[in-house]
Design brief:
5-stranded antiparallel sheet; single chain; mainly beta; about 50% strand; about 325 residues; Neuraminidase; 4-stranded antiparallel sheet; 27 strands; 1 helix
């Protein structure tokens, strides 16, 4: 294991200065390049009881890790469950102090170790590459398909919108930021013209959509400055919306890119530190005032853990 600390005074150069933005500074730290949970992507994150948690994940030949790990510092991890009872690739969300695992059914836990199934079958079924998150006091399920579902208990779900204007999205980045829901990029199941190189039945996107209530959506950017991508993630950190990584279906390449925005319209790219490899489907957390990035797929898979810390604005 090696540990690297990279101190960066990140100047967003000509574009940022032209827009009058403050200089963004932060510290990158490689916590470990070989976490105990092994190489994987698509692992689901949550934060509970002062610990980072990492659930399940893909590792080779469409085989899953069915386990659950946790850590106080991102360097030393313990296996809390060897075989989780909930669905593989279940979306994990902490709501009112409890963690929910949402997929074909719904499970809930107070401590991450003891789980109870509270719903045998979700009304939206098993979705691929959707997102479950908390927004405006409710649990939201969106990002896979053209509909949005909400719940206040994990048992009773309501479809609040369908046939949404962004279409049958999958592999988008979804977040709650600045009082709104955001959906960015991903793909629609329609061939591009010309066809994209890897998955030829897809059209990859780089648009940005937002909604205050999940019902009425506005496209705030048709073409963001970042290249169209799928399988990337979004986080709300230090009053900015961030996107990390992803897969370029046109050029069959993974991204090491990290972008941020204060308004969803104007985007800036933060230089990534030396040694940070391109990846899609990484796992991310906001924990102890830092943005954490772990694992992901770069052919081969990864099991590193990075932490970005930006000072709080006074």
């Amino acid at each position: 294991m090696r540990v690297i600390i990279v101190t960066m005074a990140v100047l967003m150069a000509v574009t940022a200065m032209a827009q009058g933005e403050d200089v963004l500074t932060g510290d990158w730290e490689l916590i470990t390049d070989s976490a105990q949970w092994g190489i994987r992507d698509t692992a689901e994150p949550f934060v509970l009881d002062g610990r980072l948690w990492l659930s399940n994940g893909y590792y080779n030949g469409n085989v899953l890790y069915p386990d659950l790990w946790s850590s106080k510092n991102g360097r030393h991890w313990r296996m809390d469950i060897e075989k989780t009872p909930y669905w593989a690739y279940a979306e994990m969300v902490v709501y009112k102090g409890r963690v929910y695992a949402v997929k074909g059914d719904v499970w809930v836990s107070d401590d991450g170790k003891n789980w109870e199934r509270i719903l045998e079958k979700t009304p939206f079924g098993v979705r691929g590459y959707g997102e479950t998150l908390v927004h405006d006091g409710k649990i939201y399920q969106l990002g896979s398909g053209d509909d949005v579902w909400t719940s206040t208990d994990g048992v009773n779900w309501e479809c609040i919108a369908d046939n949404l204007p962004y279409g049958e999205r999958m592999g988008s980045a979804v977040a709650s930021f600045d009082g709104k829901l955001w959906l960015m990029g991903g793909r629609i199941p329609v061939p591009n013209d010309p066809p994209e190189s890897h998955y030829k039945d897809w059209t990859s996107c780089n648009d940005v959509w937002s909604s205050a209530d999940g019902v009425t959506w506005e496209r705030v950017v048709e073409h963001a400055p970042w290249i169209p991508r799928v399988w990337f993630v979004a986080e709300n950190y230090r009053n900015r919306l961030w996107i990390i990584g992803g897969f370029d279906n046109v050029n069959e390449a993974n991204f090491a890119e990290i972008w941020y925005t204060e308004d969803g319209v104007n985007w800036q790219q933060m230089p990534t530190p030396e040694g940070f490899q391109p990846r899609h489907e990484p796992t991310t957390w906001i924990f102890e005032d830092s943005l954490w990035v772990a694992g992901g797929n770069n052919w081969p898979l990864l099991n590193d853990v990075w932490r970005l810390t930006i000072p709080a604005e006074e």
